[in-house]
Amino acid sequence: MTPVLVINSGSSSFKYQLIDVETERSFASGLVERIGEEAGVATHTVFFHGEDAAVAATKATSSRELPIPDHTAGFAVMLQAFGEHGPSLDDARPVAVGHRVVQGGARFFEPTLITSLVEINIDELSALAPLHNPGALQGIRAARAAFAQVPHVAVFDTAFHQTMPAAAFTYAIDRETAERHRIRKYGFHGTSHKFVSEAAAAYLDRPLSSLKQIVLHLGNGASATAIDGGASVDTSMGLTPLEGLVMGTRSGDIDASVLGVLARRDEMTPGELDAFLNTRSGLRGLAGASDMRDIVRRRAEGDPHATLAFDVYIHRLRAYIGAYLAQLGGADVIVFTAGVGENSAGVRAAALETFGFAGIHLDAARNEAPGRGIRVISTDESPVTVLVVPTDEELEIARQAHTVAAG
Question: How far apart are CA 381 and CA 247, in angstroms?
């Protein structure tokens, strides 16, 4: 066994998963949430695997409420869960701990062994990701204390996009101001885009270096990436995860002058404007619901707000697909992933409905058929292959962390 513990830490919660990178099976996963509140919640799930890899693992889940004042206490709760419910960390001692870090700026372009200096850099980059990096740093410090003898590796959401050319990541604003404040497009969901694009190439048994791919990571947060030969050449998210596609609660692309209008007319502060665009916009702002399943259901019932929300979502998605077809000079593969991308046949069909001219032809039956693994949903005659590829960011983080720790 080669166990790697993966930590995805936020300001008031963290998720974890213990993965054997040799078999790519999960031993256990968990969620510690409501850290710092009066009553925290800890959930721990153990997976039991048989000899037949094709048979789904059975699992047992335990949950409890208790005060969890900080991340250090949260890690003690996690260790207690492993001790009480398994697997034993004495028998499955992690060879590395991989940490998801959202913002690596232009400093980090690959998975990085965490040192005190790396911690300082992650802290400094919190200015670019104030909602994400501080929580990740708390998790890193708590985990390094709990697993002091184990290598810890930071895997950055932004790293995969460091291959973008300057024309793609540069904003057309005053150069000196941009450089002083490090304002540029960084892109996010990089771990998912990397995992999915490589999985697509392997499934098709084609060299990754030969493929032009458009990957559509459509979840509550959503992003599109143009990938040429395995390298990101453009992506929809920008300085922060706000830019780009319409999302569950985020606006995506918007005229920056809207902020000035709201500041003048409603006297909204910068913090209020940020919250407005990140938590009260997107599908929620248009229709009062952030879950695409609710939007699709209400649209089918004739709700005009849900219908408009769906149409705006698809309009923006088509615009990015078209732009990336132009940037790549055509595509070999289009991939849908994440919660909406993997499960909403209606979104997939609507997004690609107008692209027959570009050689993209969905097979309606394949698209509508339920499925859990990688699958083709385009016609056999379609020059562009359309795939649904389930993402697994935790496995990708485990792989990268193990590679660095073993290196």
Answer: 32
Closest of 225, 250, 113, 207 to residue 158, by C-alpha: 225
**What's the pTM?**
0.92
- Written as six digits, the tokens of 266 are 């409603």
SS3 122: helix
Q: Which residues are catalytic?
A: 157
Helix (H) or strand (E) holding 134: helix 133-146
Element (H, E) at 286: helix 282-287
337-364 pLDDT tens trace: 999 999 999 999 999 999 999 999 999 9
| Cα–Cα dist 230/207, whole Å | 9
Cα–Cα dist 98/284, whole Å? 33
The per-residue b/e assignment along 174-208, b for 16 or more CB within 10 angstroms, e otherwise, is eeeeeeeeebbbbbbbbbbbbbbbbbbbebbeeeb
Query: SS3 for 346?
Result: helix
